[in-house]
Design a protein that fits this description.
Length: 370
């Protein structure tokens, strides 16, 4: 495949018969369209592509120049703005932005795509790579999230789920609509925790994804959840896995059974496949989940750094504290590497003391208690 036909090449995007009033703006738009096609050919998700293109537009507005005029100093000025102000962006977010910018510059400076030649011919300048090791964030740590983000404690979980249940009673007592939605929300959040699901994985669950466990027939079709929309690797389809129900969370299993068999039918979902449906017969959205979690969290006065994904962190932590093998936990949550699972865990001091006591007893016998 030559550069006349390679996806994203200048020759496949530009129309030589068209004359633009603002040639610079038109060429930049063509570059973005070319990068879109190149990323589509790599099977990247539309959300990933659109997010990157939006970022490039914002960077162009910040510099008020075009790629063939960009310099390394522009990256430094832009980063300084991102980390400044009242709400500085997280370390991982900054690195992601810089990575997208670096990938775009790799694309427009690659001779196979012909964009540098087009710029040189039209404007007498050509783009160069502006992102280097000395002006970008390096990925040196496995965990780059905010240190404030952590698993919820057992007390916080009890408070949160208790508040979810209280909302149902309060709405019923006032004789207002919304009790069904509150029942759904309570079980929705309990499912995030009791099966350790990602936000997208839970809202995409369908009734057909409820599975049996041959070793626990009394749980019926709630013995496992088949996740079909797991986190995808770049350019690959969503990963699938089965998450086994565990006995420590049998209360959530019974709650899910009650929701599916009694609460959900009251929404009159018809043939809609989703587990979590709305009064309008649609699937509950991720933005709704985020907003509802934040509202309940704030009502309880819990730290604002806690978000829905912290329920997944709690699941990992508590499974380890219950004594489950780390490999089992890794498979349950769908992590490719054990190191990823490890950074999710925030085991308590009691758990560490218990493990230490067992080690002392193993090594020193009864002397370890003296």
């Amino acid at each position: 495949m030559d550069r006349q036909t390679i996806p994203g090449a200048a020759a496949t995007v530009l129309d030589a018969t068209v004359t633009h009033l603002d040639e610079a703006r038109a060429l930049f738009a063509a570059m973005l369209e070319g990068w879109r096609r190149q990323q589509q050919s790599r099977m990247l998700s539309p959300d990933t592509i659109d997010g990157r293109l939006g970022l490039l537009r914002r960077f162009r507005e910040f510099t008020d120049t075009y790629p063939w005029q960009w310099e390394p100093a522009d990256v430094e000025d832009w980063t300084s703005q991102l980390v400044g102000g009242d709400k500085p962006l997280a370390h991982s977010t900054i690195r992601g932005y810089q990575n997208a910018l670096q990938l775009f510059m790799d694309f427009v400076t690659d001779r196979r795509y012909g964009w540098a030649e087009e710029c040189l011919e039209r404007f007498g300048e050509h783009p160069v790579q502006i992102c280097h090791e000395w002006n970008t964030v390096q990925h040196l740590a496995e965990f780059e999230g905010r240190p404030e983000v952590r698993p919820l404690t057992y007390e916080e979980l009890e408070m949160f789920f208790g508040r979810c249940d209280e909302r149902v009673d309060e709405i019923r007592a006032r004789g207002r609509k919304g009790a069904l939605a509150a029942l759904r929300d309570a079980q929705l959040f309990k499912t995030y925790y009791a099966w350790g699901l990602r936000r997208h994985e839970n809202v995409r669950l369908d009734i057909a994804d409820l599975r049996r466990n041959a070793h626990k027939a009394e749980w019926g079709r709630f013995g496992a959840l088949h996740v079909r929309y797991g986190k995808a690797a770049k350019g690959s389809p969503p990963r699938r896995r089965s998450v086994m129900s565990v006995p420590e969370f049998d209360w959530a299993i019974e709650g899910l059974r009650h929701y599916v068999e009694e609460v959900r039918p009251a929404f009159r979902p018809g043939n809609h496949p989703a587990v979590w449906v709305t009064e309008r017969g649609s699937r509950v959205s991720k933005t709704y989940v985020d907003a509802r979690f934040a509202k309940i969290r704030d009502e309880l006065g819990l730290p604002k750094e806690l978000h829905v994904h912290c329920l997944r962190h709690s699941y990992v932590t508590h499974l380890i504290e219950f004594g489950y093998d780390e490999r089992f936990v890794q498979v349950q949550v769908g992590h490719a590497y054990a190191s990823t699972t490890a950074i999710y865990a925030g085991v308590s001091g009691d758990y560490k003391n218990h493990i230490l006591a067992k080690a002392l007893d193993r090594v020193y016998g009864t002397e370890g208690d003296r």
